[in-house]
Design brief:
Blueprint (H helix, E strand, L loop, with lengths): L15 H23 L1 H25 L8 H29 L5 H16 L1 H6 L5
Subcellular location: Cell membrane
Membrane topology: Multi-pass membrane protein
Protein name: ATP synthase protein I
Amino acid sequence: MDARTPNKSPFHRTPAFPVLMLQLIVTLAVALVLWGFQGWIAGYSGLLGGLVALIPNGYFAFRVYRYSGARSARAIVGEFYSGEAGKLILTAVLFIAVWLGVKPLEVAAVFGGYLAVLVVGASALLIVKGFPKH
């Protein structure tokens, strides 16, 4: 008998959704600010850096929130570990793809976009606390 219970709520109702949306907004804002002040190369470099953080975070959130309920505790823990491993691998692959596949590239802008999105993720508890429960 399978004790895992699939989460029946839509993904946009999970606590991760507002964090991911804020990370998307920060990614776009960083790209626009860099583009406005330092040019289009810095702009798309910042965008790519933000996406290198955002895409793996979305993957992780999707994996972790696939199941719900006390009967699914073991599945949730398993998804947490496999989601985190996948997130790290995906981050490395995306960084390598950006470094090897995008020329010209502003390295500082890539890291700036990446770090800006990480800061939003680090403040996730503050963001989720204000998220309305439905």
